[in-house]
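User: I'm writing a tutorial on reading structure tokens. Could you give me a worked example: one chain, its sequence, then its tokens, then a sentence or two explaining what the tokens reveal?
Assistant: Sure. Here is the example chain.
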Amino acid sequence: MIERHYKTRELARILGIHPDTIRRAAQRGELESIRIGLDRIYAESAINRWLGANLDPAVAALNGRRQTRPPSNGREAA
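And here are its predicted structure tokens:
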């Protein structure tokens, strides 16, 4: 089966975030992307990995998942 891919604006609309947030994540190497001409496309599996790695601690607690990076607010996790 062929995996679903999304363009930057389409993904931003679905996730409710600014397209620049997605572009910056791709530029930093946090979100895998494929360039096709001037466009970037993102595989659904890469999006799921990126979302999992950036899961909010409160959401992670509700889902019973461990957070993959320390909180950025300067406080230790409880």
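What the tokens reveal: The radius of gyration is 14 Å. The chain has a mean pLDDT of 81.
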